[in-house]
Amino acid sequence: MESVVIEKAVIKFAGDSGDGMQLIGSLFTNTAVNRGNQIATFPDFPSEIRAPQGTVAGVSGFQIHFGSSGVHSPGDAPDVLVAMNPAALKANLSKLKSACTIIVDADTFGKRDLEKAGFDSNPLEGNELADYNLITAPITSMTKLSVAELGLDNKSAVRCKNMFTLGMVYWLFSNPLEPTIDFFNAKFSKKPELAKANINALQAGYNYALTIEAVTSSYTVLPASKKPGIYKNLTGNQATAWGLMAAAKKANRDLFLGTYPITPATDILHELTKHKWSGVKIFQAEDEIAGICSAIGASFAGDVAVTTTSGPGMALKTEAIGLAVMTELPLVIVNVQRGGPSTGLPTKTEQSDLNQALYGRNGECPLVVLAASTPGDCFQWAFEAVRIAIEHMTPVILLSESYLGNGAEPWQVKSIQDLPVIEAPVLNGDKDNWQPYEHATDKLIRKWVVPGMQGTQHRIGGLEKEEGSGAVSHDPENHQKMVNIRKEKVARVANYIPEQRYKGKDAKKLLVVGWGGQFGILLGAVSELQEEGKDIAFTNFNYIHPLPTNTAEVFSKFDRIVVCELNDGQFASYLTTNFPQFTFERYNKIKGQPFTISELKNRFNELLEK
Amino acid sequence: MENVAINCPLKPKDYGSDQEVKWCPGCGDYAVLNAVQRVLSEENVPKEKAVFISGIGCSSRFPYYIDTYGFHSIHGRPLAIATGTKIVNPELNVWVVSGDGDALAIGGNHFIHALRRNVNLNLLLFNNQIYGLTKGQYSPTTKQGQVTKSSPHGTIDIPFEPGKLVLGSEGKFYARVVDTDVKFMASVLLAANQHTGLSVVEVLQNCVIFNDKVHDLITNKAAKQDHQLLLEHGKPMLFGQDNQKGIRLNGLELEVVTLGQNGVTMDDILVHDAHTESAVLHNLLIDMKLPEFPIALGVIRDVKALAYDELLHAQIAEQQEHAAFNSLDELFASGNTFEVK
Q1: pLDDT digits (tens, 9 = 90+) for A397-447
Q2: What is the pTM for the complete model shown?
Q3: Interchain CB contacts (distance < 8 Å): A and B
Q4: In B, which residues are within 8 Å of A285 by CB distance?
Q5: Which of A306, B262, B281, B311 is most buried by its number of CB atoms within 10 A?
Q6: Cβ <8 Å between B70 and A458
């Protein structure tokens, strides 16, 4: 049987939240990464750990887009949908494109299962799925047969059905089984019967698909042509953790993380706590407030201090962020955004904490705001957040997103040696003429003088300080002066960052503006339109506050500007405030889901035709 | 002690800062400042190794008045901030200055968790049973029924007994002092500083403006002999004129007895054991109230245990010994990687 070479494909694994969809998603991802494909992934799961079984609310999904080129996002609609039960099918039916391949577990389509999923009749029997390439496989029963020799109890045997399914999908895309087999042998080295069960099911699924010739031809996706180097699959949260560690190394200081668990940021804690060997000090606090306050205490004592959270946690940290601004201490606050307000949509993605990051504090309280744009570049932006925090003696908020934190892509392995050194403003020499709140004339920063240093004892705190001496001061003129210094210090960061770039040098008509983590999808949509010859360009902001110095110049090159973001127009409002001379049209979506390329292209085409 | 300094014969007054002290005349806080300076001097703590971290409230102005490193932070959070500072640099001698509102109301969560972890800090808990800086509202330690600005008809809140909160939070060191006896306070603070772990010293402190004479029944000269039980480890619990009265255990409760009366001898009198792990007697001592009992003062509990910061650094050292990676470069290149040529 032949295997057809294709450029890229999208697979969606969907099942009950206990069916192991995230696991087979990540195993498929690793296999694709090993082959050198471009990948982008999007896990989409309910916030309940085990939502009611068999219901649409309990469906857990993992989408992977992989290919040899053109993979900028996890993709809109899948080419292959794996539905482990009727609910998983139901949840995805409206999002399918024609000729999509659907693999279902026929064993789970009983009367009761159909009712729970809200089907009136069995969709496998009617015409509803006639447009699709439907593969109805008795996955549960075949899985049980495949592990029968091992004498597992029924529950353990059935649990392997995700591997049977993965085996089928591996055959579809001509994937090698070895990386996954190696994974199980390593994972269950002390429980060989479990390793054997998973491997049996995987191989049985592969052989089953081969035997029934599940599709007329299987597919092969070739390796991507990338910049030469070593690559590795990383999630955004892992990349954030690694970027922080790398930055601490380059600042020649220890890393301190003070944090409290919160979805979807907790994986940064999970990753860093594995690496105590690197000297990172981890403090899992009693609450969000203690998380950031311990980090402020750590910064006071001279460590690279970080706190990680998501929107509701940010709200709790607000007062302490003000303290860090007032004390002019370096601090990195990572917010992996989720759907809000309040508890909102804990496992879904949104960009709606931008206003909170920019303005959410009492008093005139400016700080630096950065946003990461892909899972892999979370490394770079975490590093940059630490660099700016230390070199400019300011708190920095790094906005990530659930979509980035949980998503993954190949990351080009960095060497510590190649990263820039981070220079802390320490006090060298003249202690006698030093004052705790004197500000350097260029960056307007004070020196980072930490307890333990002889002869420089001083007090910092939340009360307004006299410029220079640092004595508590209620003097009106001094307060105005200090407010101005804090504002100007942050504004001057713009002199130490690169210019804003954009894609589409010859375009004049429409500029698509994004910020943060919708970068890949926006790039995908604009690239496709550019290939179609449309007069369109794209720029994505990572430096949010302050903005790059050439921002207005970029905007001035275009007839129309549309700002696309997963909120109700927060960045557009911010740009309007900063650049009232331009009109910023808006394209907003607040559904807890990323943009799709097709909806963006539709909107951009409308704007181009106006 | 951890901060052995050479040529550091600083006198108590050498620790004073150049700032004008702005507490109200007659405020109990002056006594604490005085006692702390004595302890720093006695312990030979180099100025640069001491850090005072405070929250918000009258007592939290403390760091301005002492020539060490200081951090006057935000309301309720000094323990959380100090935890970060101590973890980063365990060599520092870190003191936290907080009050009944700061530590037990807005900062109550940090209070119990810092105790549970046993972070190696000294906490000065100024208890004047009132919010002074906001001008006279009831606090979590105000006696039930007391009329204050925010309780014109008397409070209906049941107050905390701070010492019992310490015990309930797995605390290892708790002492109680009054602001009228600097010498005794200094001796207790010395013990607190020498204890490894979170040492809580509750200072029964007078607010001359908003809660004057709140502790007067304990501290006034005429009554103090009968109303104070000064505890010392290994010593019998005697008080009153000529130490004629004592504390005896009767079943599961304490009682006051008089030597020589009803056949009571020294053998009946409890001997204070601050170092016992059991919190039962410590709890009973903390709970003694006037007029039936004297108020227990001094080091009530002082139990050895490993401190959080020691454990944290021990774990890092252990991980470094068994590290799977020698560098970040090794970590980054580990696992599933592929090469593009």
Answers
A1: 999 999 999 998 889 999 999 999 999 999 988 899 999 999 999 999 999
A2: 0.91
A3: 199
A4: 80, 83, 113
A5: A306
A6: yes
Euclidean distance between CA atoms B108 and B76, whole angstroms: 8
CB-CB under 8 Å, B323 with A413: no
Q: How far apart are CA A44 and CA A406, in angstroms?
A: 9
Residue B282: band (very low, low, confident or very high) from pLDDT cuts 50, 70, 90: very high
Closest-CA distance, B322 to chain A, in angstroms, reads 8
CB contacts under 8 A, A 178-217 vs B, are 179
Chain A residues touching residue B16 (CB < 8 angstroms):
none
Cis peptide before A546 (omega within 30 of 0): yes
> Nearest Cα to A336, choosing from A367, A295, A378, A305?
A378
**Tokens coding B265:** 């001898």
Longest pairwise C-alpha distance within chain B? 97
Place of tokens 């892909």: A374
Residue A62 burial (C-beta neighbours within 10 Å; 0-12, 13-18, 19+): buried
What is the per-residue pLDDT across A275-287, written as a single tens digit (0 to 9) for each?
A: 999 999 999 999 9
Q: Looking at this predicted complex, what is its ipTM?
A: 0.96
- Quick check: A176 contacting B, CB < 8 Å? no
Q: In what order do the strands lie in the sheet with B337-340?
A: A408-412, A229-235, B337-340
Question: Who among A228, A232, A461 is closest to B341 (CB)?
Answer: A228
Check if the beta carbon of residue A188 is closer than 8 Å to that of residue A235: no
Least reliable range by pLDDT among A58-67, A574-583, B72-81, B102-111: A58-67
List the single residue in B with minimal CA-CA distance to A319.
B74
CATH topology of domain B12-214+306-312: Rossmann fold (3.40.50)
Distance CA A602, CA A600 (A): 5
Q: Which residue of B has its CA nearest to A295?
A: B84
CB of A5 within 8 Å of a chain B CB? The answer is no
Which position has the token pair 């470094």? B320
- Chain A residues with CB-CB distance to B170 below 8 A: none
What domains appear along chain A, each with residue ranges and CATH number? 3-221 (3.40.920.10), 232-418 (3.40.50.970), 510-609 (3.40.50.920)
The first and second tokens of residue B1, run together, are 């002690």
Residues B302, B307, B312, CA angle at the centre, nearest 5°?
A: 175
- Taking the CA of residue B20 and the nearest CA in chain A, the distance in Å comes to 11
Between helices A288-300 and B78-88, what is the axis angle to 10°? 50
